[in-house]
Sequence to fold (157 residues):
Amino acid sequence: SNPLLPLPVLQAAHCQMIKDLSACLLGQNLRVDCRYENKTDNPLTYEFSITKDNRKHVIHSTISVSENIYRSRANVTMHKNLVCLHLQSFTTSDEGIYMCELRATNDYTGNQSRNITVIKDKLEKCAGFSLLIQNTSWLLLLLLSLPLLQAVDFVSL
Fold:
């Protein structure tokens, strides 16, 4: 067998940095999850944009300047293998094709981008776990209320 055979496959895999792009609703907010495979420890830059009426609008980015109308409503959180866009008070006027673009410093395979069409009525609610990631104060509140719950339990005995 030819040991050189798997090489092109490896190269193709290397290009596929973004694995998955998904969107969901968390209350009134839109969350767009851009999952990627970490190929390098180099710093990662990102750009989230929306295309509507054939025009591209940058929502949040470390690559270029985001538009004013989105800047105050958008923030991005980065976790292991996940870049997460949070857009507050999502309405039908925010519907469109959302694009996640990732770029690792000094990675010459070029930009990775993936897009998803977001329509309010078709969005699913985010899974419960994501609530913890997005809202740490909620988690804190839960932890603080645990002794209280135990106390209540004790009383009912």
The CA atoms of residues 24 and 126 lie 5 Å apart. The chain is about 25% helix and 40% strand. Residues 17-122 form a domain with the Immunoglobulin-like fold (CATH 2.60.40.10). The first helix runs from residue 7 to 15.
